[in-house]
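Q: What would this chain look like folded?
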Amino acid sequence: MPRNVDAAILRAFLTVAETGSVTKAARLLNLTQGAISQQIRRLEDLSTHPLFVRQGGRLILAPEGRNLLAPAQRCLAANDDLVAALRLPAVQGEVRFGAPYDIIGSYTPAILRRFSRMFPAIRVTLVCKDSVLLLADLKAGDIDLALTTETGCGRGGETLRRDRLVWVGAKGGDAHTRTPLPLSLGAETCVFRPIAVAALRKARREWQAICTISNMEPVRATLEADLAVAPLLAHSVPATLEILPEDKRLPRLPAFRINLYGAAERTPVVQAFAEQARRSVAAGLSR
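A: My prediction, written as C-alpha cells:
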C-alpha cells in the first residue's frame, strides 16, 4: 500500500537541515520546537533510520538524511508549484528578468524551467549584466525583476540565500601557486573584483589579471586551462573546477547574498515569476 509524506514534514526537515537547529527552524516556520521535533520523528519513522546527528551543538545530516535531501527538495518544489497553480488564474504577458553572470548558469535555468511549465504562454526576456548594472536597469524601468550578488541587501530587496565567495581553479592545477597570482576577474562593475583584489593586497599577494570580462565562458576557459584562479560563489562552481583551500596565500573571502529586487508596482505575471525565483533560489535548486 503506497504511503504519502506530508509536505509540512518535508518543509520541517529541509529547514532543520539548512539551519542546523530545531529552534531556528521553528522560528522560521512559525511553529513550536515540539511540533518541528514531532515532524522529524514522523519522517524518521518512515525512514527507520535517524536523519540527523548532533555535532558541536548543531544538527547535521546523517547519511540517510543526505540521501533524502535532493528528493525532499524536488517534492516540496512540486508541492509549491501545485499550490501556486491552484491560486493563480491563467495569465498572459511578459516578464523582463535580469541575473548577473556569476549565477546565471546555476540558478536561472531552474527558475525558467519551473516558470515555463506553469505559465507556458508568458514570454520571458532575460538580461545578463553585473549586479550594479541590473539595479540601474531596474530603477530605469528597463526590467521588472533582478537577482543580484551582494555582500549586503539594499532597500527594497530581499535576501533569498547566503553563499560563500571562494577561490576556484582547475582540478589538480597549480595556477594558485604562481607569482604573481594569475586572476580571471570580471569587468570593473563586477562586485567580486574589488573584494578579491583588496583581500590579496591585505595578504600581500602579488597578482596579475589574465581575464577582465564579465562573462563566465572566457573566465571558465582560463580556469579549466589552469591559466588562472577566480573568486566565485561556492554553490555556482562547475563540476569541472574545484574550490581551492584557504591559506595565507589565498586569503579568506567574505560571505555574499543572493538578493531579489523588483519594481514597486508588479503585475500578477511578475509576482508569479518572483515567487518562482524565491522558491528556486531559497531551496538551492541550481542547474
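The two ends are 34 Å apart (CA to CA).
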